[in-house]
Amino acid sequence: MVPFSPDRAKFTASTLIQTLVFGWLAHPDARVEQLAPCAARVGVDVSPQAIDQRFTLATAQLVREVLLRSVQHLIAADPVAIPILQRFTEVRVHDSTTIVLPDSLADLWEGCGGSTTTNTAAALKCGLQIDLLHGTWTGFDLADGRASDQRLPLQHTMWPKGALRLADLGFFNLHVRAEGDAAGA
Asked: What are phi and psi of 112, to 5 degrees?
């Protein structure tokens, strides 16, 4: 991860995230002109151009890290107390979804193509593993929309001994399954 560093324009990582989150919560399609008053509300007096200049790779990575850490707390839930699941050390459910993005993001997130002429060049694949037994998540992946489930990094994380993994056929791989067996999962 490229670290976000405060710059000459008064933003810290915290105030930039607050500006973006509060601004887009109030107006999901907000432009930089609408985000500038949100920055002022969190104590940063900047122009719309100053906000526009913050849309960099470092900011994108900062937002990704905040998302990952935030979702970890949101996904935590009460554990499942079904007796049949108690025989496992973990019960991991692994799945993914693809989110279509505007074509302008194709350089960051390569899409799958499609039958329409717009909004097919960029897409984001989100992979998630949750442990039903403990009510926690065990991993989250972001990849190009065109990436197969087989290529997600979570596909290749080892399971703890005694764990059960549930996934659809998109994740089926004999080599990965053999590794799980060898680990005692």
From this structure: -100, -5
- Domain limits for position 51: 13-72
Residue 8 resides in a domain: no
In angstroms, rounded to a whole number, what is the distance separating the alpha carbons of residues 20 and 16? Answer: 6
Residues 94 and 157 in one domain: yes
Closest CA to 139 of 129, 153, 151: 129
Each residue's pLDDT expressed in tens, for the chain with a length of 185 residues = 445 555 445 899 999 999 999 999 998 888 999 999 999 999 999 999 999 999 888 888 888 888 877 776 666 667 767 888 889 999 999 999 988 888 888 888 888 876 666 667 888 898 988 888 888 888 888 889 999 999 898 888 888 899 999 998 999 999 988 988 898 98
Residues 108 and 134 in one domain: yes
Please identify, among 72, 91, 108, the residue that sits at the C-terminal boundary of a domain. 72
